[in-house]
Amino acid sequence: MLKVDQYDLIRTGHRVYGKSISELARLTGHSRNTIKKAIRGEPWGYGEREHQPFPALEHFLPMIDRWLENDKDQPSKQRHTARRIYHRLIEEHGYKGSESTVRRYVRLAKMELGLSAAQAFIPCDPEAGVEAEVDWGCAVALIRGVSERLKFFCMRSKYSGKHFVRFYPCERQQAFFDAHERAFAFYGGVFPVVIYDNLSTAVRKILRGKDRQEQEAFSKFRAYYSFEARFCNPGKGHEKGGVEGLVGLARRNYMVPVPQAESLEELNERILQRCLSYGAHKMAGRDRSVNALYEEEKKHLIALPREGFTNIKTNEARADKYATVVVDRNRYSVPSAYAGSKVKVLLFVDRVEIFSQGKRIACHERMYGNNKWCLDADHYLELLEQRPRAFQSARPIRQWRESWPKSLHALLERFCQAQGETRGIRDFVRVLLLYRDHSAADMEAAVERAVANRVSSSEGVRHLLALNDGPGPTMVRLTAWSSLPPADVAVYGQLGGVS
Fold first, then answer.
1. pLDDT higher than 90, residue 288
2. CA separation (Å) from 141 to 153, 174, 245, 267, 353?
3. For helices 421-433 and 406-419, angle between their N-to-C axes, nearest 10 degrees
4. How many alpha carbons lie under 13 Å from residue 64 in its C-beta half-sphere?
5. Local confidence band at 52 (pLDDT 50, 70, 90 cut-offs)
6. Are 38 and 2 in contact (CB under 8 A)?
7. How far is CA 270 from CA 228, 260, 393, 401, in A?
8. How far does CA 45 lie from the centroid of its chain?
9. How far apart are CA 338 and CA 96, in angstroms?
């Protein structure tokens, strides 16, 4: 191979000084053919072959081509890889060559057959305030110390990159709509076009091409907010790559380490602050911050409607003998007096409200899953007052006792010692009924005083609460009686004649 300085010497010697090919061959030690190539200006080194031979694979090439051709009709995730072809050749046909040779040929063959995984993309500049993308992600969080697998909703503006993230227990349609409403409120308007995967909460059936048969409720929701829905091709999540990236960004930055909160609402408030702080970020290739770009696109958004979309489901039900109402395959308690009564149920995304004759009789945090029981111990207190022997095994009481202060446990023990178990429990239930009219803080303070002063009846606790509520009757110190003159007992004999 000619080096650069030798190439320069040959061409200069021939073109400038008129030296012959033979002279240059003797001077440099290269062959006459090499000298001729340099003089003609041909590049030195090895030229690229027009055809790449694969001698070790020669007898297997038709078979490999046939395997790859058949892959066109197979699922994309169940097609031959170069490594799989290599192992099949060894196991089934006794191939002795190297894996790298198989890889080189398979790469070339896949390109010719159109099976190459590499794809080209067109760089785009989105218009301000036109399109947003939506997707769901999944992450783990600790709620009240319990590890829960939650879903998080993501919406991202294609132009500004401003994004909204919110956690939900599930991806159901009510959560889907609620997330949109909160996202639109976050942006201060509605994007004219929103891009989705083929979510079952939005799409009922995938038709030919881009046509979709939408879920009826989603069509109503979309019409209410006046935006257009566009759906990606099946299996083509990269068509909304911005929000796909947001799912990963949110999980890596907002959810590491694993977030902890006392409630889902507290967790969402924390995530919202992280979304707001992202506004100061500058995306690659942009000379302005996310918030600056958003202020430009905000004026292009569709105005929010005056009233929010009615995202409430209603059910008619009947309270059973356990004073519970089955709603969405879970049970919610009502006051025991309503056992057997017909009730109306309103299902919100985060709570369940139960009504009887227009009066709200119960409100619970909504549960997701199957066969879960949400019991309010207060609903069963009158029944437990009548049946005190069921107190220790009553499920609502057992659940409530887990969060009782130590003083309440001590008071129950005191009542049972002083009055006997049955009467003591019945009287203790009367103390629990006082929670309806007094705050938990006042109750805890009164119970602590009752335990400290060895009070053994509900009336004593009631009296302590009355003292806390305000100034009671004036109490005279016993020491004040020492200043009075001694009583004349002789006058008591005269009282007998008084009519």
1. no
2. 15, 21, 20, 9, 27
3. 140
4. 28
5. low
6. yes
7. 31, 10, 39, 30
8. 59
9. 81
3-state SS string for the chain: CCCHHHHHHHHHHHHCCCCCHHHHHHHHCCCHHHHHHHHHCCCCCCCCCCCCCCHHHCCCHHHHHHHHHHHHHCCHHHCCCHHHHHHHHHHHHCCCCCHHHHHHHHHHHHHHHCCCCCCCCCCCCCCCCCEEEEEEEEEEEEECCEEEEEEEEEEEECCCCCEEEEEECCCCHHHHHHHHHHHHHHHCCECCEEEECCCCCCEEEECCCCCEEECHHHHHHHHHHCCEEEECCCCCHHHHHHHHHHHHHHHHHHCCCCCEECCHHHHHHHHHHHHHHHHHCCCCCCCCCHHHHHHHHHCCCECCCCCCCCCCEEEEEECCCCCEEEECCEEEECCHHHCCCEEEEEECCCEEEEEECCEEEEEEECCCCCCCEECCHHHHHHHHHHCHHHCCCCHHHHHHHCCCCHHHHHHHHHHHHHHCHHHHHHHHHHHHHHHHCCCHHHHHHHHHHHHHCCCCCHHHHHHHHHHHHCCCCCCCCHHHHHHCCCCCHHHHHHHHHCC
Note whether 410 and 451 are within 8 A (CB): yes
Contact present, 408 and 447 (Cβ < 8 Å): yes
Instruction: Supply φ then ψ for residue 318, to 5 degrees.
Output: -135, 130
**How do 351-356 and 342-347 pair as beta strands?**
antiparallel
For residues 389 and 142, what is the distance between their CA atoms, to the nearest angstrom?
37
Closest by CA position to 152, among listed 161, 143, 141, 144? 141
CB–CB of 189/152 below 8 Å? no
**Which amino acid makes up residue 95?**
Y
Q: Is residue 267 a contact partner of residue 274, using CB atoms and an 8 Å limit?
A: no
Higher pLDDT, 9 or 470: 9
In this structure, which amino acid lies at residue 410? Answer: A
Residues 6+ apart with CB under 8 A from 276: none
Do 144 and 241 contact (CB within 8 A), yes or no?
A: no
- Determine what percent of the chain is predicted with pLDDT higher than 90: 62
pLDDT in tens, 94-148: 999 999 999 999 988 888 887 765 666 556 666 777 899 999 999 999 999 999 9
Sign of the alpha-carbon dihedral angle for 328, 329, 332, 335 = positive
d(CA 316, CA 346) in angstroms, rounded, equals 9
* Residue pointed to by tokens 């080194």: 45
Question: pTM for this one?
Answer: 0.69
Task: Round to whole Å and give the CA distance between 167 and 181.
Answer: 14
d(CA 197, CA 175): 16
Q: How confident is the model at residue 362 (pLDDT cuts 50, 70, 90)?
A: very high
Q: Of 324, 336, 332, which is closest to residue 353 (Cα–Cα)?
A: 332
